[in-house]
Specification:
The protein is built from eleven helices and twelve strands. By secondary structure, it is α+β, with helices and mostly antiparallel strands. The chain starts with 7 loop residues before the first strand and ends in a 6-residue tail after the last helix. This is N-acetyltransferase domain-containing protein.
Length: 392
Amino acid sequence: MTETRATYKLRRFTSSTSPGFAEALRIYTRYFPASLKTDTNEIAYWADHYAECFEDQFLPFGFYVNQALIGYAQMAYFLKERLLVIDYLVVEKSHRRPNIFLEFVEHLRTTIDRLGLEVDYVVAEVGLQSHNGIDRIDPHTRALLRLLKSVGFGVAKAPYIQPQLGLTNKESRTPAALVIDTRERSAVRQIQRETYLGIVRTIYFKHYLRWYSIYADEKIQYNRHVSELFEEIVSKIPDGAVIAINGFPRLNSGPSVSVQVVDTELTRFVRTALVAFGILGALCAVTGLVLLIKLVTDVSYRTLVVVFALVLFAFFALLTPFYPSAERVLDHLVSIMPFLAQPNRVARHRRKPGKITRRSVQRSAKRRDPLGPSNPKEERRQQVERHPTTQD
């Protein structure tokens, strides 16, 4: 019996009346909490009118497996900024497996390429949960970040705040991580401060503010809201800073995420010096420990050398993930371990005994008495004086 392969398909909804659009929104509403959920009436409105109002594009998609709708994606593309913003990406709970997620993302990428959209950066917001005033990464968010990392996204180590979803949804204003996929610039692991602020400005003023412009009486107040958030972020990032895109965040407080400042020659020297002193201190501690073992236990020197080598091996093995150059030292230690583990190996390299000659006897006598005469006759005379014989 042969197993049939699943067929995947991504379909773009061009309007609110597109087949499957209403069902896709039901999937969306089932799995997003109220604090992170956009009104479905607003989504339906912009699905019908976005192209009429702006040169940019609103892109809702349905994801199908074997003709069954199981996922919904919502994105916005900004032409001048060459920026793609992912609003929502959700899959039915019964189909949440890594391979389904990877297929979903791959079909989105293929569709973006087929639409001819020139994209420099793809970004998405990942809200951080707050508990008793402390912002932590809950298990669901951590799992989502791991999935995004697996498809090429990295977390921008810079402050970001998700604006309110309208003026009445106060809970939706929350600290968040901004994840970035560099697409064709996959080798880039950092971006300039101005690039990051340009991305945030586009999200705030060309995405959020534009979205809520349908409420004319709230537009001015909402403009003030996003302006205040943007100024707050600008004030937290120093001039000349470089924003690291590190793949996964280490967050434990507030919306402020660490910012990597420009790496100068002085900072590189200080960092290298601190690492060198740390390694030197560790080696001194290990040496002192080995000498203490020798004094207390009276073990052989060869055993001490083996113990010392094993400690060094463990030390550099721990350093290897953080400092690639430590791997070379580790390789050298591995190469000498067999030599240290064989106590009789040195004996095999001792010189074989040679022939006994007059010169070798002289050298042997001199080693026995370095200050004595090197002349054999004189040596014989001294031996006779030390042991006189009886004359007949």
